Amino acid sequence: MKKSDLIDEIATSAKITKSQANVALNTFTSSIASSLKKEGVRITLTGFGTFSTVKRKARAGRNPKTGETIKIPASRTPKFTPGKTLKDAVR
User: With 90 as the cut, is the pLDDT of residue 40 above it?
Assistant: First the structure.
């Protein structure tokens, strides 16, 4: 499913225009992203899942093209853990 398909689905289900659905979806995704920029923030949507961030340690990697060893710096990355209702719906 593409973003445009999701916008169509939201517009149909909520009985709103596609432009309103687009604004709603963009607001949702930007709110999640801006909240996760803060350290230690978890966003829980009961039944759907939890958005959070995890810290990755610095590690050594290998350039697949040259075989050269490179250093991969430490970073924070987003994580999503599905809730029970979502897991059950997919099964």
Answer: no
